[in-house]
Design goal:
heterodimer, A: 107 residues, mainly beta, B: 125 residues
Chain lengths: 107, 125
């Protein structure tokens, strides 16, 4: 199975900060990578697919990059509604696997 | 607006079975693959499996650790996706999410787009 490792596991940031979350795959996955946001008690929300393509309706403050084994999710200017847990997921091969999550908290 | 509503969760004894349902709205169910993901308490997300649309033969893929106990099916006439779970164990206690699966024509692969809010399954005596 492909292991996905996110860093950091949690971070504290202020409104307006630029936040970068990284995701590393244990083997090359081309650009078969997605990012999700989850808030407590809410349905997860898909943000990005194919490493850098925004899902419909997702604001452009979210961006993704990377290919192969190293990927990043960037939030350009953190807003109150962005405090949540973020997950990466590879769909290069079965079983599809997720990172352990990065919790973004208010500083 | 695309919505997915899971149902059928609850408290079940170890060794028993449970069937979850996923009822969609806002799109033509038969055109899409569907998937299930779970999150156990205090743990991360775990992919359970998915079922392709009729156009792709309604074939399925599963996490190896669950294959044989969990079965995903669909009834396009009712627009419902199912997750049949047998021989449940305490480790199966989790919130189960239903997800619509989109097809990326450029990369010729599937990926998640819309998620339901999940239904809680608790396996305990």
């Amino acid at each position: 199975d492909i292991q996905m490792t996110q860093s950091p596991s949690s971070l504290s940031a202020s409104v307006g900060d630029r936040v970068i979350i990284t995701c590393r795959a244990s083997q090359a996955i081309s650009n078969y990578l997605a990012w999700f946001q989850q808030k407590p008690g809410k349905a997860p929300k898909s943000l990005i697919y194919a490493a850098s393509s925004l899902q419909s309706g997702v604001p452009s403050k979210f961006s993704g990059s990377g290919s192969g084994t190293d990927f990043t999710l960037t939030i350009s200017s953190l807003q109150p509604e962005d405090f949540a847990t973020y997950y990466c997921q590879q769909y290069n091969s079965y079983p599809w696997t997720f990172g352990q999550g990065t919790k973004v908290e208010i500083k | 607006e695309v919505q997915l509503v899971e149902s059928g969760g609850g408290l079940v004894q170890p060794g028993r079975s449970l069937r979850l349902s996923c009822t969609p709205s806002g799109f033509t169910f038969g055109d899409y693959a569907m998937s299930w993901v779970r999150r156990a308490p205090g743990k991360g997300l775990e992919w359970v499996g998915f079922i392709r649309s009729k156009a792709y033969g309604e074939t399925t893929e599963y996490a190896a650790s669950l294959k044989g106990r969990f079965t995903i099916s669909r009834d396009d006439s009712k627009s419902i996706a199912y997750l049949q779970m047998n021989s449940l164990q305490s480790e199966d206690t989790a919130v189960y999410f239903c997800i619509r699966v989109q097809f990326d024509w450029l990369l010729s692969t599937f990926y998640f787009d819309y998620w339901g809010q999940g239904t809680l399954v608790t396996v305990s005596s």
